[in-house]
């Protein structure tokens, strides 16, 4: 354990939070990236469904305003949550670091008068604190690289899958409300929804993964991703077949 008092540890944690925590501008930027990721995924999945039922969409088709507003709100919430998680993890890293830190200790020379000894101790304590901060900064730099290395792809995957789910659901809502006219060669009664991939860890998703549902039952299928790390999505099939986008 480092030679550091509880108030010093608290002050250090606060300083680390200020130095490394996300600023409002960073959080806003993350929210914007999340929003764009979700909206792109909505457009892509909606267009894929339209292609499957051979209906023409305007090339500049955009999701309705209320859905865009909802995505903006979710994006802001998720960015705030990423920022909060980061800040909490930082604080926890500082705590762990301080608990295991072994300072290399130099002793003042035992000669000269008491005043000299006191001065030496103060200098050494100051140097020890500098060494501790340098070691902490190096530790945090490593940790952040690692954290961002897995966190960024995790966020991208969750937001893309959520957007994909929202786009497919919007299309099925529109189909259900007769806003979509299927192509002449498409028999609407053969439309179905597959939950892919078939495999699933033993969790909530295993009840749905690999199943195929009549499209009219789409609201019986849960939203995906159903949990962190969920790999499932819904695909619209016609005659039991997925129509790949050209
Ligand atoms: Zn899943």
Could you outline the blueprint of secondary structure elements for this entry?
Blueprint: H1 6-20, H2 24-52, H3 65-100, H4 114-176, E1 191-196, E2 212-214, E3 233-238
Antiparallel strand pairs: 1-2, 1-3
Helix pairs in contact: 1-3, 2-3, 2-4, 3-4
The structure holds zinc ion.
Descriptive overview:
- With 246 residues, this protein is mainly α.
- The chain has one domain.
- Helices cover 58% and strands 6% of the residues.
- It is built from 4 helices and 3 strands.
- The chain has helices at 6-20, 24-52, 65-100, 114-176, and strands at 191-196, 212-214, 233-238.
- It has a 3-stranded antiparallel β-sheet.
- The longest helix has 63 residues, at 114-176.
- The mean pLDDT is 91.
- The protein binds zinc ion.
Report strand %: 5-15%
Total number of domains: 1
Low-confidence stretches: none
Average per-residue pLDDT, rounded, comes to 91
Give the H and E element order. HHHHEEE
Structure summary:
The protein is mainly alpha-helical and 246 residues long. It has helices spanning 6-20, 24-52, 65-100, 114-176, and strands spanning 191-196, 212-214, 233-238. Helices cover 58% and strands 6% of the residues.
Jot down its keywords.
binds zinc ion; 4 helices; 3 strands; elongated; three-stranded antiparallel sheet; 246 residues; mainly alpha
């Amino acid at each position: 354990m480092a030679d550091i008092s509880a108030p010093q540890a608290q002050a250090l944690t606060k300083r680390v939070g200020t130095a490394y925590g996300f600023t409002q501008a960073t959080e806003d930027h993350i929210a914007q990236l999340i929003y764009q990721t979700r909206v792109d995924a909505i457009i892509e999945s909606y267009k894929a469904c339209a292609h499957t039922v051979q209906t023409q969409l305007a090339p500049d088709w955009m999701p309705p305003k209320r859905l865009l507003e909802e995505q903006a709100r979710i994006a802001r919430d998720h960015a705030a949550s990423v920022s909060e998680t980061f800040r909490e993890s930082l604080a926890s890293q500082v705590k762990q670091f301080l608990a295991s830190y072994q300072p290399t200790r130099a002793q003042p020379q035992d000669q000269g008068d008491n005043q000299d000894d006191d001065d030496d101790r103060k200098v050494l304590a100051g140097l020890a604190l500098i060494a501790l901060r340098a070691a902490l900064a190096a530790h945090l730099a490593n940790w952040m690289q690692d954290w961002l290395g897995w966190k960024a792809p995790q966020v991208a995957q969750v937001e893309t899958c959520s957007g994909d789910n929202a786009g497919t659901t919007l299309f099925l809502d529109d189909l259900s409300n007769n806003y979509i006219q299927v192509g002449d060669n498409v028999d609407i009664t053969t439309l179905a929804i597959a939950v892919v991939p078939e495999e699933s860890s033993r969790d909530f998703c295993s009840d749905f993964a690999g199943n195929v549902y009549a499209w009219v039952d789409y609201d019986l299928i849960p939203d995906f991703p159903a949990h962190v790390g969920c790999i499932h999505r819904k695909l619209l099939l016609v005659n039991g077949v997925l129509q790949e986008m050209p």
